[in-house]
Write a structure and sequence with these properties.
Helix content of chain A: 40-55%
CATH superfamily of the largest domain in chain A: NAD(P)-binding Rossmann-like Domain
Number of strands of chain A: 9
Shape of chain A: elongated
CATH class of the largest domain in chain A: Alpha Beta
CATH architecture of the largest domain in chain A: 3-Layer(aba) Sandwich
Oligomer: homodimer
Largest sheet of chain A: 6 strands, parallel
Largest interface: A-B, 85 and 85 residues
């Protein structure tokens, strides 16, 4: 099976390195950066590679698009004429419904696209973040659509298992986006808003403890990527922010009214839920 | 120097254990729980101890009140008649202006109260959380008031240094409360509101990654203590929440307007500030 990976950054590079380590010999890498290809070849992450996808596309059975959300559908549209019959494509993006809608409009019948979301980000950018152990014990979400062939879904799931993913969960694209808005995008929105507050100053760290450091970690954010993720999921994210605001307003109201009883109830509710989870 | 500690929980117990380790022999412990006193004596955290403060108070030169905010002023009022001339009191609470106002109204002239905030919390409760290494490399804030004698401030600072605190910063009570509202209380409010959201469910962890786990850690909160901390600082906390909301609203507005340019600017601002700090 010939596997192509487009975009050998921290995620795509980790797919390449992990698949090679798992015994998949025929891994081909494509990147716009020649130096990245050189490093990938030298380190054995890929069997062959280059900057021109057309050199490899006709031979590929599986193609992993490690691209930004906005690049997925345009790629499919541009290169569809060169797809091998039966090509299985997959992506790694953190939003699904908008991407799926865009891809569906341009995907040729001879190809199948299995939409997936490996749940293990990277603070590192570029091929220096490639790590064959990145996905060990990670979770992934697969969001099948009607046109997917079961065998193709299983092909992608098998690759994920080989990479070390432990839990693969199939969910609807809509559920994926609603839940990701809450557990991931809302966290990033809150962290960014905390750091952007007018209260932020050079004196902040004199007063800050662990919780501030932890909560603001993800405010160091890849703006190019996350602006796409936010905007592609903006309805679900706005809903999630509004549901969060309901609870923040309840806290505020208890402060305004000096209402210790309600405040304690809110704390108790949170403690119970948090302990139920972890 | 005879040092008394009231409340041998995770914080008070760590003060006791740390002071004994640092060579302060004459450490006396008072707690409402007899079993706690027994453990403290057996483990050598204290020289003597008991449940009745009156047995020790007349001999004490320094008294550390490791009590809840609401207990500080009532304690001072009740036991002032038994204070030794020149007693130096100190507290460990995370709010200052309201506590100071309450204490000032009842503090006798023969005693001085150095208000302090050791910045190292505990997830553990009770004496089992006592640890002589707890305060190594921790920071502390001292909030002097006009009536404090410089030598008494230095007495407390010396004890903190002996416990392993590295940075002791003197700030005004008002600045303390404003900054703590931002770096600590706001974090707890956000975490609680996230966990209390209607979006929370048994499925959440299928989708959650590191950021969700980190950001919700402090939603497992001691409601008895934190309701007091919040309500004693509610004006500053409400201000801090409102300043946070200004930034959250800016993010929301960029989503509503599908405004990628503004969104990227907000992310860039956050990234720059976060990297400036850490």
């Amino acid at each position: 099976m010939n596997i192509g990976i487009i975009g050998l950054g921290a995620i795509g590079g980790s797919f390449a390195a992990g698949l090679r380590t798992a015994g998949y010999d025929d891994v081909y890498g494509i990147d716009i950066d020649e130096e990245t290809i050189r490093i990938a070849l030298e380190s054995g992450m890929i069997k062959q590679g280059g900057t021109n996808i057309k050199d490899f596309l006709p031979e590929l059975d599986v193609l992993i698009l490690s691209l930004y959300p906005s690049q997925i559908a345009p790629f499919v549209e541009q290169y569809a004429p060169f797809f091998k019959q039966g090509l299985v494509l997959t992506d790694v993006t953190g939003v699904k419904t908008t991407i799926i809608e865009q891809v569906r409009a341009v995907l040729p019948p001879k190809a199948d696209f299995i939409f997936a979301h490996p749940m293990r980000g990277s603070e590192k950018k570029g091929i220096s973040g490639a790590d064959h152990t990145r996905f060990l014990n990670a979770n992934a979400l697969i969001t099948p659509i009607d046109s997917n062939l079961e065998e193709n879904i299983q092909t992608i799931e098998k690759l994920y298992k080989a990479l070390g993913f432990t839990t693969l969960t199939r969910v609807s694209p809509e559920q994926h986006d609603e839940q990701i808005a809450y557990v991931s995008q809302l966290m990033h929105a809150l962290s960014v808003a905390v750091v952007n507050s007018i209260q932020a100053s050079d004196e902040t760290l004199t007063f800050a403890g662990n919780s501030f450091q932890e909560l603001t970690r993800i405010a160091d954010i890849n703006g190019e990527l996350w602006s796409e993720l936010f905007l592609n999921n903006r309805t679900a994210l706005l809903d999630s922010i509004e549901q969060f605001e309901v609870e923040l307003n309840a806290l505020k109201q208890s402060l305004i009214e000096n209402d210790e009883h309600t405040l304690k109830q809110l704390f108790k509710q949170a403690t119970t839920q948090r302990r139920h989870w972890y």
